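Q: How would the structure tokens look for this protein?
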Amino acid sequence: MAIRLLGLIALAVWAGARGKSAHTLLSARWDSLWYVRVIERGYDFKLRTADGRTLSDMAFFPLFPWLEKAFSTVFPLSPADAGLLVSAVASILAAAGIFFLVEGVYGARAALFTVALWAALPVGIVQSMAYSESLFTALAVWGVYFAVKERWTAAGLLALFAGLTRPVGLAVAAAVWVAVAQKAYTSGRWNNKALPGVVLAPLGFVAYFVWVGVRTDDLLGYLHVQNGWGNGFDGGVAFAGFIGDLLIHPPYITGVLLIAGVALLVWVYRRGFAKGYPLPLQVYTGLIVVLALCTSGFFGSKPRLLIPAFSVLMPAAAWLADRDRRRIVWTSILGVLIVGSALYGAFWLNGSGPP
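A: Here is the predicted structure in token form.
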């Protein structure tokens, strides 16, 4: 919480120096405006772009705007401010879930470092915006936690809600299914108590997918809505082309750094198997990473799409936690990362910001 507060202070100072409103930057730009439109108009808004594309608000899943509407009804808040409140509460719940899940693998010290690194991500300011990243991460991490703890119904319900928040909610459903299958395999028998969780887990995504299909009179309506935004799963072809283009045009270092970043991401993910991370967590993280990197369009969005993949931070957190000698040095490194995140978030949101 303190790390994100520092980021908000940096944003307020930076925005003030540029004559901008930090409140507006957090609550009334990009996706935030689309969520508010859903509340005010329902799912019937479309925007025609200059290049001929049709952007439909059906690309945005309903749980976040539902909560915005509920909070703005109960409290004297505008929908946008309600969105900020939802994200603030959700980010705290997400941090708590990350701590308890990582604690079971590496212990409390590494869990605390993981939470700190997650909060200090360069694009961590998104966690404080009226965006759905914090809400989804909170639902996802607790869903995976309950799946690991074999509390099937709770895990299934959280996966359902995650599926009503973002399309990658299916990754949480997959984690639940894998946890149930793993338990059945190791015990040699099926546990009927797991059935509610198995059934509930995918229902959020499926319900919205079907609803869009009915609303658009098109079985694959949701996929076509995403295509209108330039999004679609292509196995990473478009992203590879994007990197290739960066490699042949100056500054070439950008493409090199992107390749290094993807390689590092794959390496730390594989470390999870070597270190014995819970299989449901690995399945969840793997799907988040694949869906983030292998979809076309909005390449600048990929860092924020990876925010829910918190477990890739665990190896670094465990390394920091084991540095008993020269502790001041390692604490200083973390401090530099935190300050750097705050400054970058302020710079980024006052500039291009998250697409």
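The chain has a mean pLDDT of 92.

The chain has 18 helices and four strands.

Upvote if useful.
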